[in-house]
Amino acid sequence: MRTHTSGFTLLELLIVIGLFTLLTLFSASALGQARDNLALSNDVREITAALRLAQNNAVVSLHGQPHGLYFKNDSYVVFSGSWSAPFAAKEYHLRPGVNFYNSGDQQIIFERLTGNTSALSTTDTIFIGREINDKKEITVDTLGNIFIKD
C-alpha cells in the first residue's frame, strides 16, 4: 500500500516562484518611478532655495548688486550683478535626465533692497521635469513671491 507524503509538487513551486518574480518586477518599476519623482522634487526645492537666497541677497544689497538666477537647459547659475558681466557666479547642474523646458536661456533677477523681480528678468515661470508632459512649474511674481505648481 502506498503512503501519502506531505510536501509541495513541482508545479506548485513553479507557480509560487513565477508569482514572486512578477511581484518583484512590478515593485522594482514602481520604486524606480518613485525615486525619479523624489529626485525631481529635490531639484525643485533646491532651485526654490536658490531663488530665495538670491532674493535675500538682493534685499540686503550684498556686494551692492542685484542678484538672480540664469537657467540653461540642464543647469542654472546663481549670480550677482548682471548675467552678461556677473560680479560673482556659481553654476549648479541638475540630476541626469532632468531639464528645464523653457524656450531658450532664461533669467530671473531680483532688485536691490526690495526683492521684487527686475524688469530685466526674461521670464517669471520656469518649467522643470524629466519629460515635457511630466514637469513642475516654479513661478515668481513681480513682488518676488515664489510658487511651486505640480
Account of the protein in words:
Helices cover 33% and strands 30% of the residues. It has 150 residues and is an alpha+beta fold.
What is the quaternary state of this protein?
A: single chain
Largest sheet at a glance? 4 strands, antiparallel
Distance between the termini: 71 Å
Strand content: 25-35%
Q: What is the strand arrangement across the widest sheet? A: 3-2-1-5
Topology as H/E string?
A: HEEEEEEEE
Shape: rod-shaped
Structural class label: alpha+beta
Individual helix count? 1
Count of individual domains: 1
CATH third-tier fold name: minor pseudopilin epsh fold
Q: Count the strands?
A: 8
CATH architecture: 3-Layer(bab) Sandwich
Given as residue ranges, the uncertain stretches (5+ residues, pLDDT < 50) are none
How much is the radius of gyration in Å?
A: 25 Å
CATH top level label = Alpha Beta
Short précis:
The chain contains 1 helix and 8 strands; from the N terminus they run H-E-E-E-E-E-E-E-E.
Helix and strand arrangement:
Blueprint: H1 10-59, E1 67-71, E2 75-81, E3 86-93, E4 99-100, E5 106-110, E6 125-131, E7 134-140, E8 146-149
Summarize this structure as a short list of keywords or feature phrases:
single chain, 150 residues, alpha+beta, minor pseudopilin epsh fold, 4-stranded antiparallel β-sheet, 8 strands, 33% helix, 30% strand
